[in-house]
Amino acid sequence: MNMKKIATAILAILMMTTAASAFAEAGISVSSVSPVVEVATVETENTEKAAPAESLASAPETAEAVLAEETAPAGETAPAGETAPAEEAAPAAAKSIVTESAMTPDEQKLDAAYTLVLNAINKEDYETAKEYIDICFAYIDAQTNPVLFSDLLLKRACINVIEGKADIALLNLDAALRVNPNLADAYLVQTQVYAGLGDADRAIASLEKYIELTQDTSLYETVAQLQEAKGDIAAAQAAYDKYVAGTGGNVAEAGFQAGLYRMQSGRFEEAIEAFTPYLNDETFGAGAAYNIGICRMNQLNYAAAAESFNTCEAKGGTFEGLYYNRGICYLLSENWTAAAQDFAKSIEAEPYKDDATYNLAICRMQTGNYEIAEATFTECIGDGATAETGSEGTAATDQAGRAINYGAYYYRAICRAALGNAEGALADYTACIENGYELSQSYYQRAQIYAALGDTEKQSEDLAQSLKYAD
Predict the structure, then answer these.
(1) Rounded distance, CA 102 to CA 109, Å?
(2) 397: helix, coil or strand?
(3) What is the pLDDT of residue 382?
(4) Exposed, middle or buried: residue 122 (CB in 10 Å: 0-12, 13-18, 19+)?
């Protein structure tokens, strides 16, 4: 999960505290390790992980929950995260009727302005809310009413977040925390802002402070996600262990998640041991089989990996990358027919069309289907008959703007030679040589074409170049 997604997830935590808000629960996807392969590889993602017991919901408003949940009247009221005394929990109107004779004119103005702040926030009229917040500040200061003063700063910061003004929001949050260092929700909003800015270290520090103040250990799961986004898998595992401990160990996917962390840290055999108990689980079985397949690929055990992917498919798994990765396993095991079938499925169902098409062409070439293989390599190459070299420091691209795959030129040349198209083969080998692709082999193969055409002079020149560039 990247930092912006985590920022959205933290927003969801704020939204979950708002009783009046309705939202749909959404699960969090977990990334798995990309396989180590010798052809084209892809990042894979376990998209079928069950939603956590307390799912994080996403919503377009970034800090509305903190605003909406605070409905206490003006005065020495408790901000979000703190418990107000019972006598201060009455609605503002009821309080004013009871205490009208005791309120000074300034207190009445503050009470009115604060109520108008809340009303504007409830209507999502944030410009009006900011105007009344400024009026409130005319009647209080940080010394005489620190709780309400910090509460107003927090509200203004939340509005800043909603407006996309992260820098100003942080200034208001810092000011609120200077006045009231125990204002827990300020740390949660800080976490959201830092996560959205991609500052994992500060996001983690803020969220851990929030957990310290509220003892809400469920948020250690989000700490784990932040650590994972930062790339510190060991710290992510430690945070997730705290999350599990806080639930009393009652987390169905705890072992499954531990397997993901072990896989991400390259401890593939340990990861397989963690996933194995989940193979027969109705919820996690398909995901466990898929991730075991990824681990086996990284161990270069392609036959076992393919079997795990078969198990995943049999359990109804539809993970993005299932066909492509199993195709890689079959290709590297030289099971060309099975590999071709999976790459064809990947082209239709997965976002790896270019790589899958190239590998499909390889399989067709290896089975002697040179004519269809040539056509498939031509599809990889695109509109141009030969490659166009990119400018200095940039990759060459075809007319569709795709990076040139010179392997397609090289292997299309082999297909063309096998089909008796010597001129076409020469053109493709020349494209490889001009762009520095497999120079020794490209010169050698082009020399063979010249020999077949009876041009011994060019044959000799290319053979000499082949020796020059040989390892």
Answers:
(1) 14
(2) strand
(3) 81
(4) middle
Nearest to 369 by CA among 336, 343, 394: 336
> CB burial class (10 A; 0-12, 13-18, 19+) of residue 249?
exposed
* CATH number of the domain to which 467 belongs: 1.25.40.10
- List the chain residues with pLDDT less than 50: 12-62, 71-99, 101, 385-395
In-domain check, residue 159? yes
Where does residue 310 rank: exposed (0-12), middle (13-18), buried (19+ CB within 10 A)?
middle
Nearest residue to 7 via CA among 193, 188, 157: 193
The DSSP-derived string for 233-264 is HHHHHHHHHHHHHHTTT--TTHHHHHHHHHHH
The pLDDT tens digits for 259-295 are 999 999 999 999 999 999 999 999 999 999 999 999 9
Map tokens 């200077």 to a residue. Answer: 178
Can you give the residue range of the structural domain that contains 88?
Answer: 1-23+59-215
Question: What tokens does 169 get?
Answer: 């929001």
Output the pTM of the full model: 0.69
Quickly tell me which residue has 């497999």 as its tokens: 438
* In-domain check, residue 74: yes
- In this structure, are residues 6 and 194 in contact, taking their beta carbons and an 8 Å threshold? no
